[in-house]
Known about the structure:
The complex is a heterodimer of chains A (490) and B (108). Chain A is of the alpha/beta class and 490 residues long. In chain A, 37% of the residues lie in helices and 13% in strands. In chain A, strands 1-3-2-4-6-5-10-11-9-7-8 form an eleven-stranded mixed sheet, with helices on both faces. In chain A, helix 9 crosses helix 11 (353-366). Chain B is 31% helix and 4% strand. Chain B has helices at residues 7-16, 23-40, 80-84, and strands at 92-93, 97-98. In chain B, strand 1 and strand 2 (97-98) form a beta hairpin. The chains are: A alpha/beta (490), B mainly alpha (108). The interface between A and B is large, with 77 and 56 residues.
Amino acid sequence: MPDPIHDVVSSIRRGEQTAQSAVQASLDAIHERNGDLNCFRETYADDAMKRAADIDARIKSGDPNVGPLAGVPIALKDNIVTEFGTTTCGSRMLQNFRSPYTATAAQRLIDAGAIIIGKTNCDEFAMGSSTEHCAFGATRNPWDTSRVPGGSSGGSAAAVAANMTPASLGSDTGGSIRQPASMCGVVGLKPTYGLVSRHGLVAYGSSLDQIGPFAHTVHDAALLMSVIAGPDVKDSTSARMAPRDLLDRIDEPMADLRIGLPKQYRREENASSVNAMLDDAVATFRSLGAKIVELDMPLTEYGIATYYVIATAEASSNLARYDGIRYGHRTTPIAGEELSAFYARNRAEGFGPEVQRRIMLGTYVLSAGYYDAYYKRAMQARRLIKDEFDRAFAQCHAIIGPTSPFPAFPIGSRPDPLSMYLADVYTTNANIAGICGISVPAGFDRSGAHPLPIGLQIQCQAFDEPTLLRVARTFERTRTPNTPDTPRTP
Amino acid sequence: MPDPLTMDEVRHVAKLARLSLSEAQLESYRTQLSAVLDHVAMLGRLDLEGVEPMARPTPPDHAMSVNRLDDDTVEPSIPIERLLENAPQGAVVDDRYIAVPKVLGEES
Lengths: 490, 108
């Protein structure tokens, strides 16, 4: 199986291509397709080519320290700050925001020789499941441009799927990496909470947010993870986890593998193609010699309710900083206006409807008289959900299920916020519990005009990325890699 | 199932959230938030008696937590002029300050 990131690095090292040609290929693909797909909000063509020339010169001179990602073009979700370019979070509020510093995860990529080619579109402040709620237009799914790419990291997922870049970073608060990975037919990993520094990730739900990679293969995702993971003094919630080589045993199948399948994951409400994919995945693991352990996880269905209280409460607090005074959108003052009214007009103009809705909900659940009924209760439910995962992982190495209950849906087809939220039913709980999860391409829905990819989600306990990646890799090797240009034959 | 939110409640929340919204926006959020709160009410079915609330996955006493004291050394901070690049247009005064609307006192 080709691993595009690994292959780019190797071919540049061997002198078969240059970093400049790799970056140029990426920029050409973006130039050709971004008009249709709107994956990138901005690109850094000149700087990227300069960086590539520098990498090429260093390789030519025999510099041994060019880094494990030397010459790899990579895209960042538009909520990961860089001191070059702008970082808008897909919001009018930050339309011209130029960060004075670079996120730790982005800096680690740069230090490893990767070349940042641009920022990708996302739902405003990462709040959404479709990459439609953006100040700068929706992103389209490369498999079927009438459909969403999933969200909120839809631009990053679609950019990899459309071969505009071999790699990208997204962020996942309730499924925002795994769900678009599923809908775009790529690999998307949400690391354990604390494994990747959040320094420079614009905050949404701080106890849930994690940065993670998109790639075509599990091996490539592991390569990116081994670069971005690790403690950071600039993030007090980053874990004291020594760097690990996630690649050295990735191709080694797990002995006596036990795969957990919660009966609550195979629901009537899932698309029939999603349940068929799940049956197929179970058969695949059985054929590989794994034991399938049936699990009962009745708290699965409480995830959405728990998540939308905790995430919005944290969002209402995190987004209080946007007042239009020191930075961000500022409207024209009205003479004699109270300062609080001025803030309120800046925020009403700067934030789009989904962000306003979540700030309102979060404000409500934290307000006097409702804190115990909503926020405290959700934090208690969170504990129960985590305990349920702990019990499950006592019986199995990994839990499998659908990433999303359905494949990519048509743009504009879910105007009702609650129906959009329910799309996250299989993904929010990993964030709630702080465990790791990955979506791996597993099959297709062939009921419509175009084949639509479907992802298998694999979840492992906190800090058990080595197992997660080995199980995912084992599964991946039974599937043929695919892109919209070369969909897997039935 | 909780009662739907009233317009007064939504107006109060908008005020707390510092969002200046039209009556039409308030009405739309009232309906949508009521529907979400209906769904959230299912948390009432859980037996939460004595369950310790969980605020974050890795509490400060967790083995993986970074809870350390830094040496009190002076390090360079971000230059003021770099920060002022993000100030709203026309709000920078004397290359060093950000002008804000009058907060205290009567209109002169």
